[in-house]
Amino acid sequence: MGDVKETVCTNRRKLSKQLQFPLEHWIGAEQIHDTLIRKVTKSDRGKGANSYSNAFEGTDGLYTKEEGILLTLCYADCVPLFFISPEQKMIGAAHAGWKGTVNEIARYMIEAWNNEGVEADNIFVAIGPSICEKCYIVNDYVINFVENILVHTDKKPYNLLGKGQYTLDLPELNKLILMRAGVPQENILMTNLCTSCDDNMFFSHRRDKGKTGRMLSYIGWKETEGEGSRKS
Questions:
Q1: Cβ contacts of residue 113 below 8 Å, gap of 6+?
Q2: Is 5-130+183-231 assigned to CATH 3.40.50.2300?
């Protein structure tokens, strides 16, 4: 990574003040490109807020039903997924690189919420900036995983470039997985921004050949006195 730890800590403190969301109320995860999702509560606040040393180990997804918690995850080409059910006051975030995507971390989040009594058609999902299809070239090994989870899907989110080389649309693949999990298409919002193309806005692991920083994504419910709560 190209980040300087002291700079990262300073930037997080600055963002905390801008958001008016105390840093000690943030929660972060180790993120290992897997599918483990954790439900968190106020008792977990501060874990991973400013250091990986005390973040949730081996975790790539977080969700909560409690206010006063900011769920945070970091990215540099992988797909940020944000989940919300306004009716049930549930929020969540997931980190979906190609491994997490083909192992269906998006579906696991929906299933976790189903187990909490939240139906898929009451879940809204935003798919944030990630590497776009034209910038993301993969091989047969990756595409085999994609084909295995989209056996009954006619339109595939990849195109053959040449022998063993494909472009892969990771955001679209996550959208298809969400829809198969029961989330209505109209409940899914997807940006067209690319972390690789838009080099003046984003870090990109692939574009910068592995030596780059990370973007922080976040979602949370603020605690407000006398006014109820509001989303951040």
A1: 63, 83, 85, 90, 92, 120, 123
A2: no
